[in-house]
């Protein structure tokens, strides 16, 4: 074996150089407001050389517009950042050119979402950002709106890496990425909404039609609804209604998946043909088989049980409507209306900040309920407790769901009342957050005491609450 000649460089893979150029441009555009001409020209040469459209480098071009002009790229953007299962040998022979192409597409999505700029935002710009954020979510293996606490719930559970090249044991789980990515996307969207002259947009039906309802937009509409009138108010209500209906469709599906209770064997099966258990009927009558006639004589028909145990239950939902809990307020209002539509479930809804409001008369209509809320203000759970406690007529037949971050004014007094509910035999479920992304801060004082009480705080995805309620109501 001979030593390398002094000063001789190792051969550098040109694909690695190209990929580095694209990622250096990505970092430069994210963290430096001034354009780097050298990186721009080098990136353009790379993109053209690998057969991708130069529009990928145009900050004003949305992913939607690129896909419309180049439909073949849609499949590449979908699941772009979800690594495929691979063996260690496969990783060593992965085509370098494909990695350069992936780097160009990943850079486009990340820049369009995270380089949101500054200054006034138009309705069209917000709509384009929301579309690009949807493409990022799709690239991560999620549905559009899923990470931002919007319409869809639950991640795909697949591994994700920033470039889609995570190796064995190094690819982070999507479930751990969502708590970081989801809130960040929500914060960017909320900033864009704040920078938009929303009242002027709502007053113009053409501009309002460009808006896509999201949690950030709905929060702003709910905060500002008392300052709107005429066309602006009508457009705001239409956006809220669209968002409520979309979220309700998703949550209703989650509820329906687990609403079935245990079979009630004390109720005789209904003797109709659709309930006939043919397999059991044949098995039980096999002794009546006549070989000579090749005929089975049936003495008795057997039917399936279909009756379910449906015990009337009372569900009391108490929601903190302070500014930090808007996501939970929207989700739980909709969820309460869905449970209110189930047979033999008596649902009551209370919202509070420093004052409490009994929203039970409107619990079947989450749209009307949300219009009656007043987001913001301080937090005093004792006023809500004063409304909730008289509703507990039969403790063992009652579940109280309390949604808050529990940063309260009268902590000791409120916790004593919650302890009394728990010890009365009612099921008490404290929730720190009920968001689609699964995030939220909970007062550690309350968290520790709920844990000692045997009713730990549930924080995370809304499906956790659905599961808890279905277990109790089944």
UniProtKB/TrEMBL annotation:
Residues 146-175 are annotated as: Disordered. SUPFAM superfamilies: vWA-like. It holds the Pfam family VWA_CoxE. It comes from the Bacteria. Residues 150-169 have a biased composition (Gly residues). InterPro entries: LolB, Uncharacterised_CoxE, vWFA_dom_sf. This is VWA domain-containing protein. It comes from Streptomyces chiangmaiensis.
């Amino acid at each position: 074996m001979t030593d390398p000649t002094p000063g001789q460089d190792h051969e550098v893979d040109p694909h690695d150089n190209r990929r580095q150029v694209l990622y250096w441009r990505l970092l430069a555009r994210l963290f430096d407001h001034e354009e780097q001409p050298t990186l721009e020209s080098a990136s353009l040469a790379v993109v053209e050389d690998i057969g991708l459209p130069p529009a990928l480098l145009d900050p004003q071009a949305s992913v939607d517009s690129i896909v419309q002009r180049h439909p073949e790229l849609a499949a590449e953007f979908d699941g772009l950042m979800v690594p495929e299962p691979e063996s260690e040998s496969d990783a060593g022979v992965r085509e370098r050119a494909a990695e350069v192409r992936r780097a160009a597409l990943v850079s486009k999505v990340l820049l369009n979402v995270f380089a949101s700029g500054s200054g006034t935002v138009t309705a069209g710009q917000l709509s384009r950002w929301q579309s690009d954020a949807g493409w990022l979510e799709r690239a991560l293996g999620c549905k559009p709106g899923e990470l931002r606490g919007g319409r869809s719930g639950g991640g795909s559970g697949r591994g994700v890496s920033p470039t889609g090249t995570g190796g064995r044991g190094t690819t982070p789980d999507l479930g751990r990425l969502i708590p970081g990515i989801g809130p960040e996307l929500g914060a960017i969207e909320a900033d864009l909404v704040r920078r938009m002259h929303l009242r002027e947009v709502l007053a113009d039906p053409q501009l309002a039609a460009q808006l896509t309802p999201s949690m950030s937009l709905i929060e702003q509409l709910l905060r500002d609804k008392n300052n709107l009138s005429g066309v602006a108010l009508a457009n705001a209500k239409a956006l809220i209604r669209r968002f409520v209906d979309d979220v309700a469709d998703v949550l209703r599906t989650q509820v329906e998946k687990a609403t079935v209770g245990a079979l009630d064997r004390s109720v005789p099966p209904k003797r109709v043909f659709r309930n006939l258990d043919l397999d059991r009927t044949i098995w039980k009558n096999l002794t009546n088989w006549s070989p000579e006639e090749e005929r089975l004589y049936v003495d008795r028909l057997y039917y399936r049980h279909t009756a379910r145990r449906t015990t009337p239950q009372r569900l009391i939902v108490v929601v903190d409507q302070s500014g930090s809990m808007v996501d939970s307020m929207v989700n739980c209002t909709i969820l309460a209306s869905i449970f209110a539509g189930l047979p033999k479930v008596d649902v009551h809804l209370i919202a509070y900040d420093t004052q409490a409001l009994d929203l039970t008369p409107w619990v079947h209509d989450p749209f009307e309920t949300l219009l009656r809320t007043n987001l913001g203000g301080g937090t005093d759970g004792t006023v809500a407790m004063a409304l909730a406690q008289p509703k507990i007529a039969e403790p063992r037949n009652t579940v109280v769901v309390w949604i808050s971050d529990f940063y309260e004014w009268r902590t000791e007094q409120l916790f004593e009342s919650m302890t009394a509910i728990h010890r009365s035999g009612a099921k008490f479920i404290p929730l720190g957050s009920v968001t689609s992304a699964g995030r939220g801060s909970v007062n550690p004082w309350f968290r520790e005491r709920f844990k000692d009480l045997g009713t730990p705080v549930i924080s995370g995805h809304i499906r956790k609450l659905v599961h808890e309620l279905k277990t109790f109501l089944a």
